[in-house]
């Protein structure tokens, strides 16, 4: 009698585990975005990034890309930021998305979302061995030069890493956009002088 009861309980548990696994698999395949939300809700950060990437792969919408980038930033996933960051930052919807995020903060933003995402993309590209794309993105994203803008991020990387090759790339892309970049103070001139010095070794 005991053996029969134990077998029944065991088969019931196995059945429930199999059913749960099948359900998870079905939800994962049918709706990776929902699975990503679920994983995020229970603290499975890396899994939530994985499912966000799957969801973005289905329709390539800006909203899904924004979720993927935000989760990648939170997870410290520089590889995925390097892969998708430039696409995100150069999207038509990007500037409006950043403005909306800053407005949610009630005007208390010291580091704008635009500069924050620019920093993440420029830094991640550099870290992942894509120095050329990093330098180009930094220049392209910068209209007004400030201490936190993407170009300042690239200059800071070049100086801190004492990377003359990267400094040369950044300086080259800066020269290509020099007439389009404004600066309210003398900060740009000072930083460019230090960048040139690093580039010249």
In summary, what is this structure?
The chain is mostly helical.
Describe what you observe in this structure.
The protein has 201 residues and is mostly helical. The chain has 11 helices and no strands. Mean pLDDT is 86; it is low at 15-30. 77% of the residues lie in helices and 0% in strands. It has helices at residues 2-30, 32-41, 45-59, 62-75, 78-89, 94-104, 113-127, 131-140, 150-161, 164-177, 187-199.
User: How much helix is in the residues?
Assistant: over 70%
Structural class: mainly alpha
SSE arrangement, N to C: HHHHHHHHHHH
Outline the biggest β-sheet: none
Which geometry do the CA atoms define? Answer: elongated
Measured by DSSP, the beta-strand proportion falls in: under 5%
Query: What is the count of DSSP helices, taking H or I runs of 4+ residues?
Result: 11
Q: Give the radius of gyration.
A: 23 Å
Q: Uncertain runs with pLDDT below 50, 5 residues or more?
A: 15-30
How many domains, in number, for the residues? 2
pLDDT average, as an integer? 86
Q: Report how far the terminal alpha carbons are from each other.
A: 84 Å
Give the total of beta strands.
0
